[in-house]
Automatic annotation (TrEMBL):
Residues 541-864 form the Peptidase M1 alanyl aminopeptidase C-terminal domain. This is Aminopeptidase N. Its EC number is 3.4.11.2. It is an enzyme of class 3 (hydrolase). Aminopeptidase N is involved in the degradation of intracellular peptides generated by protein breakdown during normal growth as well as in response to nutrient starvation. One of its GO terms (biological process) is proteolysis. Keywords: Aminopeptidase, Hydrolase, Metal-binding, Metalloprotease, Protease, Zinc.
Length: 865
């Protein structure tokens, strides 16, 4: 049951107004929907029957047209649809459905999270609430009345502004909300519960006073300040950088603990996973704070890039997601350290998105087909999509890009459009032809750049030859060359910059010639990671060390160090396989010593430079993934660098161990990241005083960043007595903080010591674990499969069988999460025949199961193809 982009047809029917009334009760919810429907003058075929989407599990209680009740023979209900023939040109359809939110474990449509009602409608959840043309190009004005028990649900929220409210004599009360902005059904939301509120306000540039309200359970009221500050910063930033103002009198965010994704940009009523909105120094790590800031901004930015201008169909998902991720990344870069933010984003792209791009689920930024759209909320659509927008920004320059963005919003305000429309606006303002550039949207796979060079000392001429290619991906055997920006510097051996500029690549092979280059340069290629490609150039170790020391581009300084570490790690992997002793490069040790002794360096950058590439990243780079060799080589290098630089680690630790009050700003975050990295290296020496130091930090810390870092080190150590004591103490201290308990689970799930599978099996029985809660599933199952490769990939296939068992069980309950957690098994082709075979066995086991959800079926069947 596959849907194709090329089959797109405009909707036959439009809805001008959607009036909803929800009676929220403990045993059931009744929904009365009144839709004002007109035939679409732009539709090709007139006199089409009215077709509405509606989930099979939804009970249809009553249906009428212009007040006339329809009999069963007047309509047909089949899998997922309701069809009504012979309807007038303009009419009001009234429809009553009965829902069972308390039994809804899919967390799509209307469901209950910790006793409160909430909704998740993107992408296709609204059809679980009522029958509707549930597609993003049908936009209507919503008016929503919520009725519920006043004691249990004192707070009743929906999109827009509250316009009326009252009380019934039966203990129920009601509120009516009007949203003046036409919107697609996926942006509808409601919340009902007993919620605490943090309130603030923001005055827009043009003087509109906006009430800002963040709702959460009462116990979490003290964790909302950071989200509020982030929201205000984001609102100001969008005015200043994009000229975008908010357009309603109220902006609301609600925190819920049961949520499939990070957050959702429902018009005027964002619903957030607690993990992306709650923040408090005692319970939230620096990473957590930064995630809150980024996600709050992301959802806010959607108000323009997503809501005011939305997607024509779900193939265009990256139109809103790629653009909005680019916007939130720039916001975070402006609020914190630009280079560190870039390093983090590129690291995610290179590990997870590149892996996706070479997997059976690989797809273009604008996919051509899907079975279940939920499976396409991917790193490719989000992260690679953001890189595509970033390349437009680089090619056009900030000023033209802003003009293009202004034109895009002006042209398409109130419309549902395509990625072509976005690029067209950029073409208009720049006068450039971006036809070739659009291949970034239509071709999957990670392009490869092979660069070689030649220097003619007599002519002072430097030539750079760049070849591009892109490996095949499912359904795309041959790729055409991309148009991409290649930011370049030419650096002399002594570190002097001889040239800096931007090259544009369009051909399969291109030569660039630079005159007047008086010394043989080292190329600093793809500065700032100017395009999402794999770059190959035959650097010598000495050249990489020079760039690590002198490149003026912070990102490429870091990258030079990474390239060197990767090469050295790969050499050790080979030695490990050949049964030779591994060795740690003296040059690397000395380079790191210099970095560590350079107190002028920004601690955040230093920490980035002194972190070895993860096992996941080394896996992505491997021809065939050798789990044991990767782990052994990395552990060898880590412990060697730990021992060789013990004094330096201690000094770095002490330097960063200031007694400042906790603040999540870039400088303090940077100091803590270096401090905790240094602590990890110290502990890796396995010398006695350092575990005690970790324990001391655990006890004395006044923030979760320091406490958790120390906790993980002790919990994974061989000193089991201390470890068990701390595991208990941490549990005792934080058992009532659900988000902290997720960390407690993750630390144990990623413990690399023997017996890991037995430990996670036992933890799944622990009272803090709850298989209905996606955050708990990610914390335990996700962490074991993603961060404990050694054990997940046990040669006997036990890790795979355990995961498959979970998938089959979860698929009955929450297909979106089941399909998500399945990802590691889809990578089977990358492993040795024994492991690949074991993974295939589990995929086949799922395939042989009757009644798989569309979500899991799509992933499993494509993986086996
Ligand atoms: N649009 C949301 C965001 O990126 C993601 C929600 C997707 N939800 C889902 N169930 N697929 O901010
Ligand atoms: Zn988004």
């Amino acid at each position: 049951n596959t849907i194709y982009l090329e089959d797109y047809q405009p909707p036959a029917w439009l809805i001008s107004h959607t009036k909803l009334r929800f009676e929220l009760e403990e045993e059931q919810t009744l929904v009365r929907a009144q839709l004002s429907i007109q035939s679409n003058p732009a539709a090709r075929d007139k006199r089409m029957p009215l077709e509405l989407f509606g989930d099979e599990g939804m009970e249809l209680c009553r249906l009428s047209i212009d007040g006339q009740i329809l009999e069963a023979c007047d309509y047909q209900r089949e899998a997922g649809y309701l069809r009504i023939n012979n309807v007038p040109d303009t009419f009001v359809l009234e429809c009553v459905t009965r829902l069972l939110p308390h039994e809804n474990t899919t967390l799509e449509g209307l469901y209950k999270s910790d006793g409160m009602f909430c909704t998740q409608c993107e992408a296709e959840g609204f059809r679980r609430i009522t029958f509707f043309p549930d597609r993003p190009d049908v936009m209507s004005v919503f008016s929503t009345t919520l009725v519920a028990d006043k004691c249990l649900y004192p707070v009743l929220l929906s999109n827009g502004n509250p316009v009326d409210s009252g009380e019934d004599d039966d203990g129920r009360h009601w509120v009516t909300w009007d949203d003046p902005w036409p919107k697609p059904s996926y942006l509808f939301a409601l919340v009902a519960g007993d919620l605490a509120l943090l309130e603030d306000s923001f005055t827009t540039l043009s003087g509109r006073e906006v009430a800002l309200r963040i709702y959460a359970e009462r116990k979490d009221l003290d964790k909302l300040d950071y989200a509020m500050q982030s929201l205000k910063n984001a609102m100001r930033w969008d005015e200043e950088v994009y000229g975008r103002e908010y357009d309603l009198d109220i902006y609301m965010i609600v925190a819920v603990d049961f949520f499939n994704m990070g957050a959702m940009e429902n018009k005027g009523l964002n619903i957030f996973n607690t993990s992306c909105v709650l923040a408090h120094p005692l319970t939230t790590t620096d990473q957590g704070f930064q995630r809150v800031e980024a996600v709050v901004a992301h959802e806010y930015f959607h108000n323009w890039s997503g809501n005011r201008v939305t997607c024509r169909d779900w193939f265009q998902l990256s139109l809103k997601e790629g653009f909005t991720v680019f916007r939130d990344a720039e916001f975070s870069a402006d609020m914190n350290s630009r280079t560190v933010k870039r390093i983090e984003d590129v690291t995610l792209l290179r590990t997870a998105q590149f892996a996706e791009d070479s997997s059976p689920m690989a797809h273009p930024v604008r996919p051509e087909s899907y079975m279940e759209i939920s499976n396409f909320y991917t790193l490719t659509v989000y992260e690679k999509g953001a890189e595509v927008v970033r390349m437009l920004h680089t090619l056009l320059g900030a000023e033209l890009f802003r003009q293009g963005s202004d034109l895009y919003f002006e042209r398409h305000d109130g419309q549902a459009v395509t990625t072509d429309d976005f690029v067209a606006a950029m073409e208009t303002v720049s006068g450039r032809d971006l036809t070739q550039f659009k291949r970034w949207y239509s071709q999957a796979g990670t392009p490869r750049l092979q660069v070689s060079d030649q220097y003619d000392a007599r002519a002072c001429e430097y030539r750079l030859t760049v070849r591009q290619s892109c490996p095949p991906s499912p359904g795309q055997d041959h790729k055409q060359p991309y148009h991409l920006p290649l930011a370049l510097g030419l650096v002399a051996e002594d570190g002097t910059e001889l040239y800096a500029g931007l090259l544009e690549l369009t051909g399969e092979e291109q030569e660039f010639c630079f005159d007047n280059i008086k010394q043989c340069p080292v190329p600093s290629l793809l500065r700032g990671f100017s395009a999402p490609v794999k770059l190959e150039y035959d650097y010598s170790d000495a050249q990489l060390l020079m760039l690590l020391r002198h490149d003026t581009d912070g990102f490429n300084r870091w990258d030079a160090g990474q390239r060197l570490s990767i090469r050295l790690l790969q050499e050790q992997m080979q030695r490990y396989r050949d049964g030779q002793p591994m060795v740690c490069s003296e040059a690397l040790i000395e380079a790191w010593r210099q970095l560590l002794n350079d107190t002028a360096l920004d601690p955040a950058m230093l920490a980035q430079c002194l972190r070895l590439p993860s096992e996941a990243q080394l896996s992505e780079l491997a021809e065939q993934i050798d789990v044991a060799a990767i782990h052994a080589a990395r552990e060898f290098m880590r412990t060697s660098l730990a021992a060789a630089l013990e004094q330096e680690w201690l000094q770095a630790y002490q330097r960063c161990d200031t007694n400042e009050l906790y603040a999540p700003d870039a400088d303090a975050v940077g100091r803590r990241s270096l401090k905790n990295l240094a602590l990890a290296y110290l502990v890796a020496t396995e010398r006695e005083p350092w575990l005690a130091l970790a324990r001391q930090q655990y006890q004395q810390s006044d923030n979760m960043t320091d406490q958790l870092a120390a906790f993980a080190l002790v919990a994974h150590s061989d000193d089991r007595e201390t470890a068990e004591e701390l595991l208990q103490a941490f549990y005792q201290q934080w058992q009532h903080e659900s988000l902290v308990m997720n960390q407690w689970l993750s630390v144990q799930a990623s413990d690399p010591r023997d017996g890991a599978l037995e430990r996670v099996v036992a933890l799944a029985q622990h009272p803090v674990f709850d298989m209905r809660n996606p955050n708990k599933l990610r914390a335990l199952i996700g962490a074991f499969c993603g961060q404990n490769a050694q054990h997940f990939h046990a040669e006997d296939g036990s890790g795979y069988a355990w995961l498959a068992g979970w998938i089959l069980q979860l698929d009955q309950q929450n297909p979106q999460i089941a399909a998500r957690l399945l990802t590691p098994l889809t990578r089977w082709k990358r492993y040795d025949p024994v492991r690949a075979g074991q993974m295939q066995v589990q995929l086949q086991r799922m395939m042989d199961t009757t009644e798989l959800s569309a979500d899991v079926y799509e992933v499993v069947s494509k993986s086996l193809m």
